[in-house]
Design goal:
The complex is a heterodimer. Chain A is of the alpha+beta class. In chain A, about 25% of the residues lie in helices and about 30% in strands. Chain A is elongated and about 75 Å long. In chain B, helix 2 crosses helix 5 (about 210-220) and helix 8 packs antiparallel against helix 9. In chain B, a hairpin with a 2-residue loop joins strand 7 and strand 8 (about 155-160). Classes of the chains: A alpha+beta, B alpha+beta.
C-alpha cells in the first residue's frame, strides 16, 4: 500500500517523482521520502503505522501530517529526525541520506540539519528560556558567550525579549512553545519538525505559534507539522493524511466468492466495508512481529467481521482469508447497521 | 553540559542540601573514626620513640616490653650493657595501674632510673629525682605539686608531660624505677625489659633483642581487633555515602529522563551526559567533604581523648570522595544511556 498526500494546496501542489533532484533552485534542500516502511512490535504483533510512504517536499514548504492518534505522525517525525530507524525505504534531505546515517554523521545531522519542536514543549525546567535555547548550541560545542548571544537573538525573533531569564514554569504555554521553536532553530536547520505544536495551547496562544510556524517555512527551510488539529489546515502548503481513508462505500450490499486461501483484506489496509459470512469459513489472522501469524478466529455462516475499521476510521487490525471456498456479503456501514437493526427487531419479536 | 548539570543541582537544591548534610555527617564520622585509628597507632609510635632506645631486650618467651607478663631481673641491664654493640642499657618497668579518685582512673606506669638516657622530658616542672616523685600526663588533669595515689602508693607530681597517652588515651605516669617496682612487683627488683643505646650483636641465654618497629607492632597487637573494626565500619560508612550520593544522582537521572532524551535528540552523546552526571556527583561529594571536615572539627573536642586528623587523612578523604563520586555517577549513567531519544517525542 502506498500513501500519498491526499490534499495538496492547489497553488503549491507538486508531484515530483521521489527520485528527482534533491536540492531546490532556491538553495534549500528538498525532502524526499521513498517507499518508507516503519514497523515495530506491539504486544507481540507487528504494527506498521507507515507502510510504503512516498513524499517529496520542496524547500520553503510547510507540510501538515494530519491524522488521529496512533496513525504514525510522531513515528514519521522520529524517522525524519533520525531518532528512529525505518524498516525499509529512504529519507533524503538534500544530499543527505538520512536513513543511512551512523556515528558522527548521525550526531551532526541531529545537531545541525534538523530542529525539533517537541510535544509538551519538553523544555528543561531548571534552565531559563535563554539557556534552553542555548542547549543545542552548547551540546554542539559552541562557546558560552556565542551560544548566549545566539539564544537571545532567537528569542527576540520569537518576540520573547522580556522572558530571556524566565524558567519554563514562569512562562505561559504559548511562550514556552515559542521558546521550544527558538530552540529548534538554534542551528538554523533546513528541516524543522513540530509535533502537535498546538496541543496544549488556547486559541490566543495558538495564533502566535501558527504565525511563527508559517514564517519559518521560507526558502531554505522545510517545516513539517504533525497534528490532529484541523485548524492548521489553512496554514499548510501541503497536507498529508496519515489516517487511511478508504473510498466511500457507496455500493449496495454485494456478494463475493472467495477461493480457498484468497485474502479478502490485509492487516493495515484502510477499511470501508463490513462482511457477513454466507457460506464456507473465513480465518481472521494477525501478523506477529516474529514474521509468523496467529489465527484469531475462524468464522462460519452468519458471523460478521471487519466492522471496527470503518466505524472508527482505523486500519484493518488483522487480515481476513478464506479457509475453504466461501461466500461473503459486503455491506457499507450504513447498510450493515440497517441489517443489524432489522435482525434485532425480528429476534425481539415474540412471534 | 556542565552548566546544565549545575543548574539541575540548583533546581533540586533542597534535595541537594539534604544529601550534602547526610553525606557530610557520614564522611565526618568516617573522618573521626579514621582519626581515632590513626591516633591509636600514633600514640604507640610516639611512646616507644620517647624512650630514645635503639633496641629492647626482653625475656625470650615474650613478644615485647609493653605487653609481657614475664619480667626479668632489673640487674639484667648490667649484663646487657657488656654485650658488643651496646653503649648503654637501662631497665624499664612498663605496666598499668589505677589512680584512686572518686572513680578509679586507669593509667600507664613507666619506671626508669634517674639520669638515664630514657629520662622523659617534662613539658613543665621537672623530672622525678627521688622516690615518691612523678611526672603526670596532662591528660590526668592534675597540677604540679598535687599528690596522687597510684596502686596504693602516694606520689607527688613534680612535672607534667604532654602527648604521652596510649591505649585509647590512657594517661601515663612516669616514676623512678623503685616506685614502679613497688607498684607493679610489690618491690621486687624486676623490669619488663632493658632499653639499650646501640644494638646488641649478642645476648646472654634466655634473652632476645627487638628493634623499635617490633616493639611498636607488639604494642599495637592488642589494638588490632579494635582498629580492624574501625576500618570495617569506615568502609561501611563509605558505602553508605556512595549510596546517598548515588541515590541522589540516580533519582535526578530518573527524573531527567525526558531531558536526556531531548539532549540526545539534539545530538548530545552518552559521553557528555556522563560528564554531566559525574560533575553532579563530584560537586555533591566535594560539598559533603567540606561538611565532613566541619563536623569532624566540631566533634573532636567532645572525644574523651585527643583525636588527631593529619593532612594525610584529609587527602585520603578527598580520594574516597572522588571514588564515591565516580561510583555514584555510574548509577545515573546506566539510566541516562538507556534513555531513547524517541522519548522526547512523547507527550506528558
Amino acid at each position: 500500500m502506498h500513501l500519498r498526500p491526499t490534499r495538496d494546496h492547489p497553488a503549491r501542489a507538486t508531484a515530483h517523482p521521489a527520485e528527482d533532484a534533491a536540492t531546490d533552485p532556491a538553495g534549500g534542500p528538498d525532502l524526499v521520502i521513498s517507499d518508507l516502511v516503519i514497523a515495530y512490535s506491539s504486544g507481540g504483533y507487528e504494527v506498521r503505522p507507515i507502510d510504503g510512504l512516498d513524499l517529496h517536499v520542496e524547500s520553503g514548504q510547510l507540510v501538515l501530517l494530519l491524522g488521529a492518534s496512533g496513525c504514525g505522525k510522531t513515528t514519521l517525525l522520529s524517522a525524519l529526525a533520525s531518532i528512529l530507524s525505518p524498516t525499509a525505504g529512504s529519507i533524503r534531505l538534500g544530499d543527505v541520506e538520512v536513513t543511512g546515517l551512523r556515528g558522527r554523521e548521525l550526531v551532526d545531522y541531529r545537531r545541525h540539519k534538523v530542529g525539533v519542536v517537541f510535544q509538551s514543549f519538553n523544555l528543561v525546567p531548571s534552565l531559563t528560556a535563554s539557556e534552553n535555547v542555548a542547549v543545542p548550541l552548547r551540546v554542539a560545542g559552541v562557546a558560552g558567550r556565542q551560544a548566549r548571544s545566539r539564544a537571545e537573538e532567537l528569542l527576540r525573533r520569537v518576540d520573547l525579549t522580556d522572558r530571556l531569564h524566565h524558567r519554563p514554569g514562569d512562562l505561559s504555554g504559548g511562550q514556552a512553545q515559542r521558546v521550544a521553536i527558538a530552540r529548534a532553530l538554534a542551528h538554523d536547520p533546513g528541516l524543522v519538525l513540530a509535533d502537535e505544536p498546538t496541543a496544549h495551547l488556547d486559541y490566543i496562544q495558538v495564533d502566535g505559534v501558527l504565525r511563527l510556524l508559517r514564517q519559518l517555512a521560507a526558502p531554505g527551510r522545510i517545516v513539517i507539522v504533525a497534528t490532529h488539529d484541523e485548524r492548521l489546515l489553512p496554514l499548510a502548503d501541503r497536507v498529508v493524511e496519515l489516517t487511511p481513508r478508504a473510498p466511500e462505500a457507496s455500493r449496495p450490499p454485494h456478494q463475493l466468492t472467495l477461493d480457498p486461501g484468497q485474502v479478502l483484506f490485509s492487516q493495515g489496509d484502510p477499511g470501508d466495508l463490513v462482511y457477513v459470512v454466507d457460506d464456507g469459513t473465513v480465518d481472521i489472522v494477525r501478523r506477529r512481529s516474529d514474521g509468523g501469524e496467529e489465527q484469531l478466529a475462524r468464522l462460519g455462516p452468519g458471523s460478521y467481521f471487519g466492522e471496527l475499521a470503518p466505524l472508527f476510521g482505523l486500519r484493518r487490525s488483522a487480515s481476513a482469508r478464506a479457509s475453504v471456498r466461501s461466500t461473503v456479503t459486503a455491506y457499507s456501514l450504513a447498510d450493515f447497521r440497517a441489517v443489524q437493526a432489522h435482525v434485532d427487531s425480528t429476534s425481539a419479536d415474540p412471534a | 553540559m556542565w552548566l546544565i548539570s549545575l543548574r539541575d543541582l540548583q533546581w533540586r537544591r533542597r534535595r541537594f542540601v539534604i544529601a550534602v548534610i547526610a553525606t557530610g555527617l557520614v564522611f565526618g564520622i568516617s573522618l573521626l573514626m579514621a582519626g581515632t585509628e590513626f591516633t591509636l597507632y600514633e600514640d604507640g609510635r610516639r611512646i616507644v620513640g620517647s624512650f630514645g632506645a635503639d633496641a629492647w631486650v626482653v625475656d625470650e618467651g615474650t613478644s615485647g616490653p609493653f605487653t609481657t607478663a614475664s619480667p626479668i631481673p632489673a640487674s639484667t641491664a648490667r649484663r646487657v650493657a657488656l654485650e658488643p654493640g651496646v653503649e648503654a642499657a637501662e631497665p624499664v618497668v612498663i605496666s598499668r595501674s589505677t589512680v584512686e579518685r572518686e572513680a578509679p582512673q586507669d593509667v600507664n606506669i613507666i619506671g626508669y632510673r634517674p639520669g638515664s638516657f630514657v629520662a622523659i622530658p617534662a613539658s613543665s616542672g621537672r623530672g622525678p629525682q627521688e622516690p615518691g616523685e612523678a611526672i603526670a600526663d596532662v591528660a590526668l588533669g592534675v597540677d604540679v605539686g598535687a599528690t596522687i595515689s597510684v596502686g596504693g602508693h602516694d606520689l607527688r607530681v613534680v612535672g607534667l608531660a604532654e602527648q604521652v597517652t596510649w591505649y585509647f588515651g590512657t594517661p601515663t605516669v612516669f616514676v623512678l624505677l623503685p616506685d614502679a617496682q613497688a607498684i607493679t612487683f610489690r618491690g621486687q627488683p624486676l623490669a619488663m625489659g632493658v632499653a639499650t643505646l646501640g644494638v646488641p650483636s649478642a645476648l646472654p641465654d634466655g634473652l632476645r633483642a627487638l628493634d623499635n618497629s617490633q616493639v611498636v607492632r607488639d604494642l599495637e597487637r592488642p589494638l588490632k581487633s579494635s582498629t580492624e573494626t574501625i576500618a570495617l565500619l569506615n568502609f561501611l560508612l563509605w558505602i553508605v555515602a556512595t549510596g546517598i550520593v548515588g541515590s541522589m544522582v540516580y533519582l535526578s537521572a530518573l527524573e531527567r529522563s525526558r531531558d536526556f532524551a531531548v539532549f540526545k535528540a539534539t545530538g548530545a552523546t552518552n559521553r557528555s551526559l556522563l560528564a554531566g552526571l559525574l560533575l553532579q556527583a563530584a560537586v555533591l561529594a566535594a560539598a559533603s567533604a567540606v561538611v565532613a571536615v566541619v563536623v569532624a572539627w566540631l566533634l573532636v573536642p567532645s572525644f574523651p581523648f585527643t583525636v588527631q586528623i593529619p593532612a594525610a587523612l584529609y587527602l585520603r578523604l578527598a580520594a574516597i570522595v572522588t571514588a564515591v563520586g565516580v561510583l555514584a555517577s555510574l548509577a545515573g549513567l546506566r539510566q541516562a544511556v538507556k534513555v531513547q531519544p524517541a522519548l522526547a517525542f512523547g507527550g506528558q
